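Tokens as discussed.
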């Protein structure tokens, strides 16, 4: 597989691409089966994920086989998480609205008077923050100082204030935050400023 990928990277021909694509037929079928069995997507979702990963990894100068398999697995996990978030948000939306008494009426759903929208938004935002932090913190390199910084970060307006509250030098805090920021993927999580807004 690695040899076929390297041939494609050099030649960039349809025949070279077809050789790689055909070689991955078992992987393609397995990916489709996993996604459809999970009930979170259909065949077109499975093919879209497969094709996106294939094109992205073919364009990189990496060991194709190993990187492709791990990237495909991560893409499926991201897809499942996205679908789970969508279902959770839909349930929240359903919970905060009342159906019209007349199902055939053209009136829109209205916000329930007892629904705490602010609480739901904060809860969803908190869950999103936790997901990003779980991704950023490398479990093989995590330490108590980094955990403490991440936990206390939202309570302070500046790095200096955070460092002072924790009894650390501000450069130590900056280095730890910088190490986390290098793992942040804007394509996956969006603009980091969305997570800093109060």
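Sequence:
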């Amino acid at each position: 597989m690695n040899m076929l990928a390297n041939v494609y990277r050099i030649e960039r021909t349809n025949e070279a691409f077809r050789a790689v694509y055909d070689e991955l037929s078992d992987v393609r079928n397995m990916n489709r089966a996993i996604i459809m069995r999970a009930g979170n997507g259909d065949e077109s979702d499975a093919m879209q994920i497969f094709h996106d990963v294939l094109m992205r990894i073919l364009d990189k100068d990496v060991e194709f086989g190993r990187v492709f398999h791990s990237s495909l697995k991560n893409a499926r996990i991201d897809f499942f998480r996205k679908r789970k978030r969508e279902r959770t948000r839909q349930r929240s939306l359903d919970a905060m609205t009342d159906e019209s008494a007349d199902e055939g009426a053209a009136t829109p759903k209205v916000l329930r008077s007892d629904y705490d929208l602010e609480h739901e938004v904060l809860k969803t935002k908190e869950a999103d923050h936790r997901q990003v932090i779980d991704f950023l913190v490398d479990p093989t390199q995590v330490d108590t100082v980094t955990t403490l910084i991440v936990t206390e970060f939202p309570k302070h307006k500046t790095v200096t204030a955070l460092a002072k509250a924790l009894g650390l030098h501000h450069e130590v805090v900056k280095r730890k935050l910088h190490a986390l920021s290098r793992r942040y993927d804007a394509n996956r999580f969006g603009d980091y400023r969305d997570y800093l807004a109060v």
